[in-house]
Amino acid sequence: MERASECCRGSVPLVLSGNQHCQSLERKMTLQRACERGDGQNLVTEDVTVVEGDVATISCRVKNSDDSVIQLLNPNRQTIYFRDFRPLKDSRFQLVNFSNSELRVSLTNVSISDEGRYFCQLYTDPPQEIYTTITVLVPPRNLVIDIQKEIAVEGEEIELNCTAMASRPATTIRWFKGNKELTGKSEVEQWSDMYTVTSQLLLKVGREDDGVPVICLVDHPAVKDLQTQRYLEVMYKPQVRVSQNYPVQGLTREGEPLELSCAAFGKPQPTDMRWLRVDDEMPQHVVVSGSNLLISNLNKTDNGTYRCEASNAVGKSHADYMLFVYDTTATTEPAVHGFTHLPNSAEELDYGDLSGTPVLINASTEALPTVQLSNASLAFRPDSRAGEEGAIRSVDHAVVGGVVAVVVFAMLCLLIILGRYFARHKGTYFTHEAKGADDAADADTAIINAEGGQNNSEEKKEYFI
After folding, report:
1. N or C, fewer C-beta in 10 Å, the chain?
2. Distances from the Cα of 80 to the Cα of 86, 112, 121, angstroms
3. Beta bridge partners of 19
4. What angle do CA 179, 202, 138 make, to 5 degrees?
5. Measured between alpha carbons, how far is 169 from 182 in angstroms, rounded to an integer?
6. CA dist 25 → 32, 119, 320 (Å)
7. Distance CA 340, CA 382 (A)
8. In angstroms, rounded to a whole number, what is the distance separating the alpha carbons of residues 446 and 435?
């Protein structure tokens, strides 16, 4: 504390002007550090953090005032204020409050050059000194999103870069797609006292991303809610829907008309739509008008699957309608008539309203990037022949069941009869009594010729065959 006392007593002059300095700057700073924030100091101050361009307020306060002189010095040890007098010719410094216990000064339009240590001095015996640090924050001067491809195709992976320039400290960049936060990769470059941060995001896009905003948001202590965004533009192959205009979800009976319509949506809008019959030629009496298909007089030869195909610059998609023509006396109506959904790839999507007219989307069979599907998108559509085939299967099951029952009953009866027969006829017995009687003309002769006669009856032997 002897060196600290020396510093506080004699090394610091009462008022520092431009040419007034200590004999040795190095010795002075060493002694100054010994005095700074020492125990028993009567001076109090706080560090200041301010955004570039704002106002910083420096306060030098005395805990126990004894009418000693208070002065404020800048980082270059130039006196800003001595009591209520300002020797430094910088109008940005303004006196906010002066009393025996406080000297408060404001600094307007703060810049990076104003950052550093400011000293509060109190001329007591011994003199006291304490410092406060001004830290200047600089928000990003520019925030830009750059997209590798302005227009992407579904399934592609695109690169986006967001750059926050000239900030202090370095910013943290966050990515969002709609309300979902994504993870990017950031790089930081330092230029003098400023930092430029660039974040890269790799994003695989689908048709559901078309028109969705991608947001670049900055976390920085100097600014709140600083963000910029770009809207994705994604091209995708058509979405196809087939609807039955007449009869409206009714049975397709012989002699009645059938009208189907096809709608396709895509980006770009599909330019080519056509009807065809799967695995067969289109009947000659079928009339195709644009997106509509009309059969004025249905008959059994019209049964089959009718497909609507649509294509654009991205790819091709289709939707199928399975026609089954019923007899004129048919009354059973299926729950959903005419539409079938037999997925031929993982990309078959159903974009129809499940609660209204049944609608089916079948994606193209061309090789294009796979789209993740939900359970609702793969909902199965029952066949138009479900009602009749269900009834036929019910009748067939009844007939087969009756035949099986009759066969089982007949086999049981046969087993019982055979059991009783074998129980009564266990074998045939032959005895020696009949031996030699085969050539006898009558019964008496047979008895006489029998070997042993009545006398050998005790030697009778039996054989079981």
Report:
1. C
2. 6, 18, 11
3. none
4. 70
5. 23
6. 10, 15, 91
7. 6
8. 9
Total Cβ atoms within 10 A of residue 436:
14
**Hey, which bits of 47-141 come out as E strands?**
48-51, 56-62, 69-73, 79-82, 93-98, 102-107, 116-123, 128-137
How many Cβ atoms sit within 10 Å of the Cβ of residue 423? 8
| Residue 237 CB neighbours (<10 A) | 26
Please name which of 146, 164, 178 lies closest in space to residue 227, comparing C-alpha atoms. Answer: 164
Taking alpha carbons only, the member of 218, 234, 242 closest to residue 165 is 218
Cβ–Cβ < 8 Å for 141, 194: no
Q: What is the pLDDT of residues 37-54, one digit of tens each?
A: 444 468 999 999 999 999
Q: Are 383 and 322 in contact (CB under 8 A)?
A: yes
Q: Over the stretch 370-417, which tens digit does the pLDDT of each residue have?
A: 333 333 333 333 344 344 444 444 446 677 888 888 898 899 899 898
Q: Are 265 and 238 in contact (CB under 8 A)?
A: yes
Tokens of 129: 């000194």
Q: What is the three-class DSSP state of 417?
A: helix
